[in-house]
């Protein structure tokens, strides 16, 4: 969360943490950070934010989710284990995602991506137990996929997988742009979406 707040501030946004429904009511856009989507589901319930957030997203609140945040924004989470606590995604993005999709052996990696809408060079992408997007609905624009390169070859069929999407004012990345210090381009892209609303 701290890294997102810092990157948003550097993008010229007035960023603040949201922990209570009153704070949610005051923002013009929201970032859902990485973490653990089962825990995030539980925390949203505990802080009585799940329903208010779902409603604001349904009403068109701009949102950006990274990694677990992408999972929370999805319509469907594939292959949930009925023995484990469930992720209850918010359904703001018409995609199905697979959690921890890049494999259990080597589950973190970094690579450079072409990102539609960011034209001044590739985006460095840090993946940490990341999901990928497996199905996209008609209204969803694919912004980035994993390239075929030495960093990604053999990683559970990583190459070609969809890892950044946008549907109207909702943006999501399977990776963590907030962890790449000195490059706020994805956050600036999101700040522009918010300002355009
Ligand atoms: N593996 C986590 C999940 O499924 C996401 C990891 C992350 O956000 N870096 O929720």
What's a quick, concise take on this entry?
This protein has helices at residues 2-10, 21-25, 37-46, 50-58, 68-73, 185-196; strands spanning 30-32, 63-66, 74-77, 93-98, 108-115, 118-128, 132-136, 141-145, 162-167, 170-173. The chain is α/β, with parallel strands linked by helices and 197 residues long.
Summarize the structure in words:
The protein is built from six helices and ten strands, in the order H-H-E-H-H-E-H-E-E-E-E-E-E-E-E-H. It has one domain (about 1-195): Rossmann fold, CATH 3.40.50. The chain is an alpha/beta fold and about 200 residues long. About 25% of the residues lie in helices and about 30% in strands. The longest helix has 12 residues, at about 185-195. It has a five-stranded mixed β-sheet. Glutamine binds near residues 34, 37, 71 and 129.
Task: Record the SSE blueprint.
Layout lengths: L1 H9 L10 H5 L4 E3 L4 H10 L3 H9 L4 E4 L1 H6 E4 L15 E6 L9 E8 L2 E11 L3 E5 L4 E5 L16 E6 L2 E4 L11 H12 L1
Parallel strand pairs: 1-2, 2-10, 3-4
Antiparallel strand pairs: 4-7, 5-6, 8-9, 9-10
The structure holds glutamine.
Glutamine binds next to helix 5.
